[in-house]
Design brief:
Helix 7 runs antiparallel to helix 8 and helix 8 runs antiparallel to helix 9. Helix content is about 85%, strand content about 0%. It has about 270 residues and is an all-alpha fold.
Length: about 270
């Protein structure tokens, strides 16, 4: 089952919270609060008819206006969401320069695609592109998981050692089996050989899956670049909603393909370790 809805909902909630928090942390907000406190304590009644709590009302109104304008400010909102998105899929969590670079490339593509989509006028085309952005969130999430799993596999010293040592261990056990005369000992050696061969088979499956995952990661980045070029075409010329719908379906197909390979990796890796 796809995890898409939960991830998208989480990112929407985090984006909304990030925008509101940013509004309260703006320098204008800090100055408004500071001025309100100063005026309440130093100039509580500048006029005979003035009440000190009038300053509080003005401060609350001013703060509400700052929050409202921050939320409505599309440029600020985009910057906040972009920062939040990079925090959620932080390239610095990847120690490998190879996979960190690929994730950064994917994030850059998404950022550029988002800029193009936001420029579209309201309408059917705009709605399709907005849905495409939601699918791109899942795309980046799967690239992130794929890169982390590949990095973990390549850095797993135990697995890498077993890949090299097991064939020789099996050869040694088979040689010992040929020389052993005690039947009970021979039976134990056979069990050891069978166990090691099963481990070799599992490791071989894992290696095959990881090689496919590496290729899928490369193909996915290429496809993401293709999607970016298609968005550029959308931005440069008018197209019908059928073509936009086809683009959205292509993106969904890439997301599903990545999800399948990530799921397979998790299953095989879990059986092997």
């Amino acid at each position: 089952m796809s995890r898409t809805p939960s991830l998208q909902d989480e990112l929407r909630r985090r984006a909304a919270r990030a925008i509101v928090v940013h509004a309260f942390l703006r320098i204008e907000s800090a100055l408004t609060i500071a001025m309100t406190i100063i005026l309440v304590f130093l100039y509580p009644t500048p006029f005979p008819w003035w009440q000190w709590w009038y300053w509080l009302i003005l401060g609350v109104v001013g703060e509400a206006f700052i929050v409202y304008t921050s939320i409505r400010d599309e440029v600020t909102a985009k910057e906040v969401v972009a920062d939040m998105f990079r925090e959620r899929f932080n390239p610095e969590e990847l120690h490998s320069a190879k996979y960190r670079g690929r994730l950064e490339q994917a994030l850059n593509y998404r950022h550029r695609i988002e800029e193009i989509a936001r420029r579209q006028e309201e309408g059917i085309l705009h709605d399709y592109l907005e849905n495409s952005l939601l699918a791109l969130t899942d795309w980046i999430a799967n690239i992130f998981r794929l890169a982390k799993r590949l990095e973990a596999y390549e850095g797993d010293e135990v697995l890498q050692r077993d890949l090299k040592a097991l064939p020789k261990d099996i050869q040694n056990a088979e040689a010992r089996l040929r020389l052993e005369n005690n039947e009970s000992v021979r039976q134990e050696i056979r069990q050891v050989i069978a166990s090691k061969k099963a481990q070799v088979q599992n490791l071989g499956q894992l290696q095959d899956v990881m090689e496919k995952a590496e290729m899928q990661l490369e193909n996915s980045l290429t496809a993401l670049g293709t999607v970016y070029s298609q968005f550029l075409l959308l931005d440069a010329q008018k197209i019908d909603d059928a073509r936009a719908r086809g683009l959205a379906q292509d993106i969904r197909g890439q997301v599903d393909a990545l999800q399948n390979i990530v799921t397979t990796m998790d299953e095989v890796y879990g059986r092997t370790i």
